[in-house]
Write a structure and sequence with these properties.
By secondary structure, this protein is an alpha+beta fold. The chain contains 10 helices and 45 strands. Helix 2 crosses helix 4 and helix 7 packs across helix 10.
Length: 757
Amino acid sequence: MRRRRSLLATALVAVTSAALVLPASSAVAAGCSGTNDSDVAIGDNQTVESSLAISDCPSAPSATATVPVKIVHTYIGDLQVSLIAPDGSAYVLHNRSGGSADNIDQTYTVDLSGETSNGTWKLRVNDNAANDVGRIDTWTLNLGGSTPANDFSVAVSPASGSVAAGQSASTTVQTQTTAGQAQTVALTATGLPSGATASFSPSSVTSGSNSTLSISTTTSISSGTYPITVRAAGTTTKTATYTLTVTGGTGPQIPDIDITAVKAHLTQFGTIASQNGGNRRSTSAGYRASVTYVKDKLTAAGYSVTEQPCTSGCTTGAGPNVIAEWPGGNANNVYMFGAHLDGVSAGPGINDNGSGSAALLETALVLARTNPAMVNKVRFGWWTDEEQGLNGSRFYVSQLPSTERTKIKTYHNFDMVGSTNGGYFINNITSSQSVHMKAYWDSLGLQPEENTEGRNRSDDASFTNAGIPASGYAMGASARKTAAQAAKWGGTSGGAFDPCYHASCDTTANISDTHLNRAVDGIAYTLWKSAVGTGTPGQDFSVSVSPASGSVTAGQAATTTVGTATVSGDAQTVQLSASGLPSGATASFSPASVQTGSSSTLTISTTASVAAGTYPVTITAAGTANRTATYTLTVTGGGGGSCTGTNPADVAIPDAGAAVDSDVVISGCSATPSAGSVVTVRIVHTYIGDLTVNLIAPDGTAYVLHNRSGGSADNIDRTYTVNVAGEGANGTWKLRVRDLAAQDTGTIDTWGINLTP
């Protein structure tokens, strides 16, 4: 999410945070009450605690427990005072009221009936402003509760059942009084799939009595297994789960997205950041590596993927947007799902916004794997330069002709959907474009709220400002969770939704699996409801080669059979092509296009000068999607091949811009690269202290040759020795150069590599 606070305010927050300390005093009391009269100093911008251990209290705390508090302070409007229960729950007693008045000397009444009596209780005082100090003078806790608080339990029997679409299932809801007096509890159910309704007979019972839950389904319901949450609301709310399995439904089959797979993408984003300076800022190598990761996954899954350079309005050197479209569906009704892929320079940006990017990526991959019949068109976007002002998404929208804008019926945005102290927020929650998103979270009983913190701070604003309806999920950034939100969602009242917002600790440890899982499943629910049909799966096919490898003497030809099969839907025509051929080799297909279920003969012809070596040749079959297979070609006896190479072509190095590459292709090298391989570099530049220079191996491994040394000296003209003994020789080697500061420019003049000096 884009930052809103000014640099001055950010600096003040940093100073304030650095001043936080936690001095504490403690006391022990037997029975259900106690006092701590040890003074605890309250310094400016400090958090302090005074502890009281309760032991041997035989009863539950009262709903009218009392807390007499005496605090000496010269400006009580600076103070927040909270009672902290043994389980960590916070009860706010005083929240910066009273303005410039002196001292707090007051008895507070607190409902602690849901807590356990025995344990360590704390009085926590936060001084939130400068210039006034004081002390905790004394405080007392009277838990009361001479009789146990009223309590009850709820269960369902049987706990699961199966129903054919159009029929009903029933179970018995059982309640018991577990403490105190019997009470009336109201029964409700959440988590019902679309096309199912629930009724209770009776709808409320006295604890100790039972009710019958009936779940009715329509024939258009989707087949699947659904956890139904039964809620019993009395003095507290208790829940039980009934697992409903529906068979024979005609609705679209909405998948449950695997949270483990989403987190695997997050782990990869974290690795990318750690390998590229610790962040994934839009102008960084970490961002470009993130683009490559996302693009490669989508391309392999059969998406039409485009890298869209941001040629205006973005930060100099910012990487591209990634746009992916799934085949099928009405192209005049586009439902678009997006997340910003960039982070800030302070850290790896895993919650902000690896979480949204990873959730979107896995949803897209599941769509490709299930390949359902599409009613409407689905398009995905991963945006650059959001943290610098929503620039990537704004550029994308600005490049759309008006006719294309009108085709986008809704844009859904996902920014920070794994916050560890998160809430459940929806952009434009009451709008029609949010209906499916809200329906899914409502089914979980989450009671989502409008995303006021994120208004106009993420990429949905770019679409809304262009007249395209938008919605989205978020779990919150630096805003603080209220007591009411903590009561319904859990978590820490008064704490930031994301305590690592725009900080170095925004790592893979800064993710709530629960929040992330509820977000990604809601994304899938929204996508399937918006664009997936209820008919048979979409057209799909497979491609294979047999044999999968072959050897040829240079100057001769090799053949293999390319087979295709219809996987789902009707047979279709696919076009065949080959890539990855060595220089001096050509490929032809007979025929060049086939109906799925048929075969073609691939002939690879070589010249006498082709380099000896082994080459993975990719066979692509293009139809409603792209499917690939690999043929491994071994060439022997060729006259080509070398373990050295040079690129004399000039490559301009932009001032304070993106990295540039110069390539050397090594082929036919039969030796293993040496630990003393030699890289000769000549770069013309007026300030080499601005430059980083890396050798990039064919597998993407980077070897640092020059890292901003040399100060104001001109030009690099030297030979480096590099240990690349662990690399494969053949492939594309790159010299990657980046200028990291302003006012000086230059060119890569020439460079060469010798793997066997």
